[in-house]
Amino acid sequence: MQTEVVRIIESALNGQSSKVREYCQLLIQNLKKDGDGKFAERLERTLKMNVRGNQPMVSLDEIANLAPKDVESKLSMLEVENPKVVKKLILDDNIEESISGFIKRVRARDQLSSLGIDPKLSLLLYGPPGCGKTTIANYIAKETNLPIVTARLDTIVSSLLGSTSKNIRKVFEYTNTKPCILFLDEFDAIAKARDNEFEHGELKRVINSLLQSIDQYSNVLIAATNHSEILDNAVWRRFSTIIEVTKPTSKEFIGELMESILTEYNINIESDKIKDVVIENFIDLSPSDIRSIILTSISNMVINGESKLSYISLLSEIFKAKKHGKVDKMELIEFLNNNTISQISISEWTGLSLRKIKEILSKK
């Protein structure tokens, strides 16, 4: 039995999960022969749990190395990785509840299937860019301890007639046999409406192939799109869970998101005096934009040797973001003043004299 244990460890270190299972089965047989049925049963339960349990038995390398390749480009059609670390997912309550329900179904899929109930493991996320669709997919993968397999649409979509449909089938058939989450980002690239006057007959073949593949898929599927308006009508009916991920409008949500980012980087803010003013200006920006603005402000704080983050810095970066970098200094000064920043503070922050600040504001 010592030999089997050594072989199991060697196989695990080399990422050969099939060998791990093989030697575990051999070890279980020998334990039963030696009368240690209790330990043998424990090992059997562990193996069964890990088929679809907390830690996938198939290594990332095993999935990636055997992944289907596009005939034309010879490139892999799948990108395989462990989910990116998501320390805390900040979501509106209604979205969080839907995501939580989906995660519970993934975890309970074996029990549901054993009762003859379809666990319904397909999720469509749609909404503007930068609102967290990819983050949600990674969060679900992390919470279910499954690798996330992203379909590479640049290789799936082929210029060869009929190849795109074949590539879609290959991707679905291959990942359907693996403990993983298939993630279709920029889903609209292969799911455009068939009645689009600018598309040709090939699109109809692609959509038909996609619909058939989704219908036959029994694994976890997550699709995300920024352009839901161009999706084929039949595509929507294929997903058991559909969630719109929008730009935040709730002040409570934005405040929690801001606090989460500051806590993540252990940054203190100067005071809570005009916190609500900053939050108000964050409304209608995507979570990605909000994070980018806060991180830019933190970077400026570090570069300038300051110990705390100032609201004037945050407001300035919000203004720049909304103006897409085209900043008129006089407009910025007016914006800061309209958002309760005193003329003295603006003078100190800009390096302009108080007299000059008063002059600029009087002209406005």
What does this entry look like structurally?
With 364 residues, the protein is an alpha/beta fold. It is built from 18 helices and six strands. The protein has a six-stranded mixed beta sheet, sandwiched between helices.
List keywords for this structure.
globular; alpha/beta; 6-stranded mixed sheet; 364 residues; single chain
Would you tell me the overall average pLDDT? 84
Give the % helix.
40-55%
* Poorly predicted tracts of residues: 51-57
With strands numbered from the N-terminus, the spatial order across the biggest sheet is 1-3-4-5-2-6
Order of helices and strands: HHHHEHHEHEHHEHEHEHHHHHHH
Outline, from the CA principal axes?
globular
What is Rg? 27 Å
Query: Helical stretch count?
Result: 18
Beta-sheet strand percentage? 5-15%
Q: What is the rounded distance between the termini?
A: 85 Å
Number of strands: 6
Question: In terms of quaternary structure, what is this?
Answer: single chain
Could you give a short account of the major beta sheet? 6 strands, mixed
Assign the structural class, choosing from mainly alpha, mainly beta, alpha/beta, alpha+beta, or little secondary structure: alpha/beta
